[in-house]
Every structure is written in C-alpha cells, then in structure tokens.
Amino acid sequence: MTGLRRALVGIAVAGAASGAAVALVVANSDHESERGALVAITLVVAASFIGTGLYAWDRRPENGTGALMVGVGFAWYLIPLSSANPPAVFAVAVVFGNLFYAVLIHLLLAFPEGRLEGRRNKLLAGASYVVAVAMTLPWVLFFETPSDDCERCPRNPILVADERGLADLLAGIQSLLAVPLLIAVAVVVIRRRRAARGAERDALAPMIWAGAAVFAVVAFQLAANIAGRQGIGQVLFFVSLIAVAAVPYAFLVGLLRSRISRAAAVSELVARLGSTPGSEKELRDALAETLGDPTLALRYWLPDGERWIDAEGRSAPDPSEMAGVATTMVRHEGKPVAALVHDPRLNEHPKLLETVSAAAGIALENRRLDAALRARVEELQASRARLVEASDTARRQLERDLHDGAQQRLVALALDLRLARGKVESDPEAAAQLLDASIDELAAATDELRELARGIHPALLTDRGLGPALDALASRAPLPVELASALDDRLPGPVESAAYFVVAEALTNVARYAGATHAAVSVARANGKLVVEIRDDGIGGADPAAGSGLRGLADRIAALDGKLDVTSPSGSGTLVRAEVPCE
Fold it and tell me: What is the reported pTM?
C-alpha cells in the first residue's frame, strides 16, 4: 500500500469516527426534536462527500477536487453539532456551522481542476469564507441562549451582552450579503459551463447544476428568513438538504460522463484518422474537438535543422518556452515528430493527452513530412535568392576590381607601348626604358588577374584537387594552420569547390576577427559525406547570421544537400563544420 493510500484510509477512518461521534451528540441532544432524521441526513451527506472525495483523490491525486470534497464532508459535521448539550461544542457549531457552504462554494469554483483560477474566482471564494464564518461571530456575541427560539439550548459561553436587536441586525446584514454572493457564484459557474467544450462540458454539467440548485434554495431560504417567513425558511432548509445530498453523486456522474465521453471522442478520432488522412486543418480540428480545446495548435519538429516549424513550414518558437500554454510531445517510433500546444488545464488529464497523442502519431508524422517539405522548399527559395544576390554582388565586385586594377594597368601599358613605338627610331634608349616598364606593368597585371582567378576558382583546385589546394591555402594564411586531410582520390567538382571556399572563408574570418594564434583544418570522408572542420583558439562569439560570408557558404552547401554548422561560444574559439554528400 502506497503512502497516499494509507493516508486516504486514515482519512476514511477519521470520517467514520467523526460521524459516529456526531451521531452520538445528536442522539443525546436535549433540544433537538428530530434527532433520528438529523442523524440520518448527517451521515448520508457526510459519507457521500467524504467517500466520493476519497475515490476522486485516489484516482486523481494531482487534482485538488478530491481533497475539497473530503473537506466539504467534514465541514458538514459542524452543522448538526448545534444540537450538542455542552455549551462550548454548541458555540463552535453555531459560529462555524456555515463553513460547509463556504467550502462548497470553493469546490464549485475550483471544479474540475481542483484549484481556483482567476482573480474573480479567488475573490468569490474568499468572500464566501468571510460571510459564512467571519460575519457569524459578531452577532453570536450578542445573542443570548436559551431564548424564545430555543428554550432548551445550552447557554452561549461567548456572550458579551444580551443585545438581541443588535444580534438580529448583524445577522440580517450577513444574510443580505450572502444572497447576492450566492447568486454571483451561481452565475459564474453556469457561465463557465456554457463556455466549456467537449469532455469538460460533460464533466461540469451535473456538478454545476446540483451546486447551483443548492445555492438557489439557500438564497430563497435566507430571503424568507429576512422577510420573517420562518415557516417557509424551514421548509426550504430541508429542500436544501436534499440538494446538498445530491451534490457528491452529481460529481460522480460528471466524472463518469467525462470518462465515457472522452473514450468515445478518442474512438471517433481513431476512426476519423483511419478513414481518411484529411488536411492539416481537419487534423487540427479533430484533435481540438477530442481534447475540448479550441485553441489547440500544432508544431512540428524538424530534426535536420533541430528546430520547430508550423504547418506552412515556417520557423516557429519552441512551444515549451511559450507563455500561457502547455505542450505535449507526440512521438512516433520513439522519435519526436510534433507537439500539441494546448490549454494548461488539459494537464489535469494526462491519460487523455497520452491516448490522443498515441492515436495521432502516424497522422502527425505524415503532416510533419509535408511541413518539412514546405520548409525545405522555402529554404531553397530563400537560398536561391541569396545565391543570385551574392552572384550579382560578386560580379559587380569583379567588375570594380578589373576596372580599378588590371584594366587600368593594361590601359597604361597600351599608352607606354605607343610611346615606345614612337621613340624606337628617334630615341632607342628611351624606347627601351618604356618597354622595360611595360614588361613590369604586364607582370603586375598578370598577378592581379591570377589573384582574381584564384578567388573565382583556383586553377590548382581544378588541376590537382582539394588536398593540394588546401595546402596552398594554409601556406598563405597569416597564422599557423594545421592541416589534416584524409582524401585518397578526387571528389566531384562542386563538392571540392564548396569545401575549398568553406575553408577559405573560415580562415579569412579567423585572421580578421578571431584574435586567434592557431587554426586547425581537417577534411575526411565519413558515412558517404565529406566532413570539413575548421577550429581556432580565438575569442569566439561568431554569429553566422550577422555576415554574408558564412551565410553564402551555407547556401552553397545547402544546394548540395549538405549542412553548415557554426559553434562559437564566447571566449572558447570557433568551430565551423560542413557536411556535404559525396557519393
């Protein structure tokens, strides 16, 4: 037996013992005329609340409803204690006898989650305790017993002064405040039932109608007492007892109806998913109806990018970090595929969430694949746009470099050659000097063109492959570079080109921004992919989204179905890792 079960058994024993003690007190009362009926009603009502509450507490220990039900049952024992002969017990019963109604209000406002939600519900619950208990004590202090109303009642041990007029005034104020309070509670719970959907609506209905009936009868009883119609008030009191006795069974009916309706809803969901996959909207609507949550949203997990996307393939925030909602992960074959983003109140029904998630796993996996395809298309479109933009930018830069560098040198070279031609016969020595200068200018122009060509596509990469091209790249780096290459043969041209420019861009960034003293480059094949890694011991903190260099490389890699990752914690260097399929 678990600790909870032992505690519940102890509460049950305490409830039975309390019932026996109250029955004994009533049976020996000197001023109660209907002792037998009162004992029967007391035991039936208390046992119903405590028994039903213990059952709910055992089945749903995380929900506070069961504990509140038990509290209502024990508070009920205080009412018949006003039949007690000992003055102290009699006074306690008179002062705290209305506590039952306050706890019942608390229960109705908290049902079915078992906790008060919202400022309005908390204010109503607090007001019920004030009106039921705190406002009883003042008039009891001025109400002398025995009295005309109860000639055989014990004396009032807490009497301050016999001021019956003042006592009646204070009691009247209490009743006047209790009537609108009860009406307000009834309105709130009825409106809540109307706003509820699905399984929650089924669970709320019996409990709310029974509780509303209790408070309506009590409100009429108080109004009759205020109007001086004591006979009608007495009749309504016994009617209220019948309504009170029905409340715990209404709760049990609501609990069973909730379970049955949820089982039927899950069965219907399975049938709908099995007959036709439907659209994204149809799937979401089916899940929302089953869970009774019209705000339900779906998010899909993209393992390749390790991010969340919506049904359209757009990036979405991590649902577990969203405020005001709860998240239930959906798995298929042990892998996360989607998340249900729902009302936090559904966490009170973990089995329902688990069942719905399991039933919808395959359908959500199919939808995830569709969403992933849309995300891939969107990424490719964005990547293509960036590649076109980068290509245009590179072309314009190449035009500027040619115009400002080699083109200007060639123009100057042409002018020098024309001057030299004119001086060949008249001044051979000057012509020779001009020709020597032209040779130097031609060499400089050739070097500039070679550098431009290397930036576009190194000839060494085309002629000898990736390994020698990386050796040359490392030797030109302004800091020590350790190169580890495990390539035995040539790779496809686009793969070699992509790998080369990843290393070139990464080493350029290391030299410019990292403040590093050393870099290491490794290139190897693994599982049908070319894996390129560039590490440095610099300051870290690199943001690939902040510049166009790495973003352009990521687009180039993505065009080959590869992936580029940058890990750069502040103060711990940077790792650039590229994976490109090469088979």
Answer: 0.52
